[in-house]
Design a protein that fits this description.
10-stranded mixed β-sheet; two-stranded antiparallel sheet; 14 strands
Length: 410
């Protein structure tokens, strides 16, 4: 089996529109949550969100093209360009038939609503001819493949909030088994829209807090829902010898991936834990390590009552014997929940944590919950040498997805 390494990274997030900007915000424990500005909230319970700020697509596409690309695809193009340029591949000749894109989204495009209103007011003929090409979930992956001339497989993975992690996992397996040499993997979402906000609010998933600093508070006893965020994360995954031969910089190695389904509920985790434990176990087994060798977990940690309780129970079940004091944090405390993009951005953050030997904090943490009693790195990050780190993603529909990354120094 072939080794798989990360050679490029790119991101668009509520705390920075590049990887460096995002990481600086994490070092500063910056909160990217604020007043929801993308639509009028007068008749809406939800008043805050984690919006991407000062985003400009003009550096990546021509002005006339922008109207043909939904916001989720715009973020995808920007993050993928950053990752591609960061990898150095733009100045290299390589086999583009073995260059793939595995890039997902939880929701895809968000312009269906306005087009529906056109039908109601003006009739069917008023609908834009770009409605379908803009909104299909695969359009982020397709736009990336077109821009980067990637002729290998072009596949979106849609597993709700686990989409980004599963895209990276599938890309890892493809390269490991010889189906690709280079893959752009990641995910993007832009769901700060009335229908998505109202829909998540109707099932009690969103916080109604109006205080940005006490809104997304993973593992805190006062948590009462997640904050809707938006953004994108992209990683260039590459076969090790391919990267080595072109003298590419290597950020980290991906060594394990686990993916299971609870097959239990559309929205609730299964507190029996069996399939979540199995997903972590699969990743650990593939990495050929023990739980005691993992130094840090970037948790899914959404700030909802049941997700955080479930994930804490899950971590304790796996690590209680060999690694009971393992460090865990949720960077959603700073940028809200990016839905499908969350796992991709969090994989980048986990990679940076390994590179910098720094554990990102869970900010806004004040009240200890007896049911969530792990080391959540409250409010202030800390230095720690990291050899192996794990990133978790959990999605509606019962998806449990886990990545294990290894320091490039080994």
């Amino acid at each position: 089996m072939r080794k798989v390494v990360i050679t490029g990274m790119g991101s668009v997030t509520p705390i920075g529109n590049t990887v460096d900007a995002m990481w600086t915000s994490i070092l500063e424990a910056k909160c990217g949550i604020g007043k929801l500005t993308q639509f009028d909230t007068e008749n809406c319970d939800i008043k805050i969100a984690a919006e991407v700020k000062e985003f400009d697509l003009k550096n990546y596409v021509k002005p006339l093209e922008m109207k043909k690309i939904d916001r989720f695809s715009q973020f995808a193009i920007a993050s993928s360009y950053e990752a591609y340029i960061d990898s150095g591949l733009q100045s290299r000749e390589f086999n583009r038939d073995m260059f793939s894109v595995i890039f997902g989204s939880a929701a895809g495009g968000s312009t269906i609503g306005p087009e529906y209103h056109k039908i109601m007011e003006q009739g069917c003929n008023a609908v834009s001819k770009m409605t379908i090409p803009i909104n299909l979930v695969n359009m982020a992956a397709s736009n990336i493949a077109i821009k980067l001339k990637a002729f290998g497989t072009c596949t979106p993975v849609v597993t709700a909030c686990a989409s980004g992690t599963d895209c990276i996992g599938k890309a890892y397996r493809d390269i490991k088994n010889g189906y690709s040499n280079v893959t752009l993997a990641g995910a993007s979402d832009a769901c700060i829209q009335p229908v998505f906000i109202a829909g998540f609010n109707s099932i009690g998933a969103l916080t109604k807090s109006t205080d940005p600093l006490r809104a997304s508070i993973p593992f805190d006893k006062d948590r009462n829902g997640f904050v809707m965020g938006e953004g994108s994360g992209s990683l260039i995954l590459e076969e090790y010898e391919h990267a080595k031969n072109r003298k590419a910089k290597i950020y980290a190695e991906i060594v394990g991936y686990g993916s299971t389904c609870d097959a239990y509920s559309l929205t609730s985790p299964d507190f029996g834990l069996k399939q979540g434990i199995r997903a972590i176990g699969e990743a650990i087994k593939e990495a050929e390590i023990s739980p005691g060798e993992i130094s840090y977990i970037n948790a899914h940690g959404t700030s909802t009552k049941y997700n955080d309780k479930y994930e804490s129970m899950l971590i304790k079940s796996v690590f209680c014997n060999e690694n009971p004091k393992i460090a865990v944090s949720s960077t959603k405390s700073m940028m809200g929940h990016l839905l499908g993009a969350a796992g991709a951005v969090e994989a980048i953050i986990t990679t940076k944590a390994i590179n910098e030997n720094y554990l990102p904090p869970t900010i806004g943490y004040q009240q200890v919950d007896e049911e969530c009693n792990l080391d959540y790195i409250p409010n202030i990050g800390r230095k720690k040498k990291i050899r192996y780190a794990m990133s978790n993603s959990l999605g509606f529909g019962g998806h449990n997805s886990v990545l294990i990354l290894k320091s490039k120094g080994d």
